[in-house]
Amino acid sequence: MKQLYLFILFSSWSIIGFAQISITEISYNPPEGGTDSLEYIELYNTTTSAINLTGYQFSKGITHAFTEGTIDAKSYMVLAINKQAMKNVFGVDVLQWTGGALQNGGEEITLVDASGNKVASVTYMDVAPWPTIAEGTDGNGRSIELCNPDADPNDGNNWKVSETNIGITINGFEVYGTPGKANSIPDCGSNADVVVMVSSNVFTPADITIEVGQSVEWQNTGGNHNVNGTQTTFPSNPASFSSGSASTDLWKYRYTFDVPGLYNYQCDPHASLGMKGTVTVNMPVIIDLYPKYDIITVSSVNGVGVPDSLGVLCKLEGYVYGGNLRPGGLQFFLLDDNNNGIGVFDSSFDFGYTVTEGDKVEVKGMVVQFNGYTQIDVAEITLISQGNTLVNPKVIQNFEENDESSLVMLQNLSFTDPSQWTGSGSGFNVTMTDGTHDFTIRIDNDVDLYSMSIPTGAKFNVTGLLSQYDNSEPYDSGYQLMPRYAADIEEVSGTSDGENNLVHVFPNPVQDHLFVTFPLNTTEAKIISTIGETSIINFNDSSIDVSQLLEGLYILEVKTETSLSRVKFIKIK
User: Fold this and answer.
1) 512-526 confidence digits (pLDDT tens)
2) Using CA atoms, how far apart are residues 533 and 284, in angstroms rounded to an integer?
């Protein structure tokens, strides 16, 4: 058994040992809000000669082709997404890669030579056995480092979080890393979970308790000893382990325990002298890194507008409102049944999810703040259901922190300066007023309103999701109402009084289900086609199935005890 173990170890080392370049450090999710600027990859030349990188390129992970450059013998090269940010924070000169970004949930990074041969490759992850967010990586400030340049980079056990604090704090997290320098973590050889010293006819400690998947290393410091935990000697052991025959060499023997239970072992030559021990292997305690909370719990703020749950890892369930405001990444609003909301964000990864209004999703991540706005940085997203009924907008008269990320409506607004409707940039702001208060309306370039002309009319009811952009404490200003689509800016009909202005439909145009906000005193509601055909509908439902209607223009007519209102909508395929 001992000879087989040594053979496997030697064979593995031989295969890995041919690598000339090793990926030795990765920063894939630095603790920054918004766009990450401190992502980097460290390369190390394991040979005694310089390596010319001309023609080399990354085939996976990032985009970068080397037109020149060398890595000196036993030296490092660092590539980063933003060379100036690396200079500012770490004080190191690096190469800036051409394109792409590292995915927070893990991905393959591969470097190939001019002939397309794989030179260095690693598929990192953010779950065990790789270092996790609980250990300080994945947004909590620490890079991950390879324990030895010759170690297998695709074995997560060979990676640990950096132990070098550079003395800079970002978003409340201290930054750790050694880009361009020797790694700070122990070499792989000292990474056993428990070390037992073998000497003077005793195991120290003799009786230990570990968890499934952990390893124990016995180190002989003198004497003729061995470790015998075979089922031949101890039939009740869940599995066998043994260092082989007793030896006076200064040997080391490591065994990883994958089966729970009580293990007995002994040193054969000195068992009669009491040289025995036990290993108790328990199932690991499962700690939910993302405990479930309600949206309203994690979105509360303190007296200066900072989230009470800043930095908290959590799992939230809610409904998707609006579309994706960050194509290529994620940015949308997540609301619960009571219209409490929070922003959802990832700068460069969509986690395989297509943002669709009405979806119910589960989002795991960390509560952060960006310019006064509370959001959750995504670690994982799961679709639960689709086509759910949305809440009716809350009618408000002022922007308040309690309504952040909620669906709200402002009534009887007019544009103060139509020239502000520019249809340019990443989005534009227009000011609207109710005659007493002015409100900032944000038209994002990912909504249909962006490419449309300014709505015509004198007065409008405006529905949207309340965001915030305030870059200093106290975070009590900079609120912006963000309409989701053209139907959210609705001209107020001249036949409607203030109460009837609550009649509102979305989405518009519509395919299958039309969501309607009816006044409380509605007595009749019907849909009228352009040729006068009429369908009576149930005004007690907030969702109307229009899937069977032909394409075209329709009018929703709503009667109350005192008035009549009509709202136009368009049916599409």
Assistant:
1) 888 888 877 888 888
2) 67
Average pLDDT over residues 51-74: 93
Question: What is the distance between the alpha carbons of residues 317 and 364, in angstroms, rounded to a whole number?
Answer: 9
Choice among 5-9, 425-429, 553-557 with the minimum mean pLDDT = 5-9
Q: State yes or no: cis peptide before 31, omega within 30 of 0.
A: no
Per residue in 429-480, pLDDT (tens digit) is 999 999 999 999 999 999 999 999 999 888 899 999 999 999 999 999 999 9
Q: How many CA atoms lie within 13 A of 323 on its CB side?
A: 16
Which of 187, 212, 235 is where one domain is finished? 187
Q: How many domains would you assign to the chain?
A: 4
525: left (phi over 0), alpha (psi -120 to 50) or beta: beta
263 and 352 inside one domain: no
Work out the widest C-alpha separation in the chain, in whole angstroms. 103
Provide the whole-model pTM: 0.47
What is the β-pairing status of strands 564-571 and 360-370?
Answer: unpaired
DSSP class of residue 403 equals G
Residue 229 and residue 366 in one domain = no
Cβ atoms within 10 Å of 464's Cβ, excluding its own? 27
Range of the domain at 415: 288-492
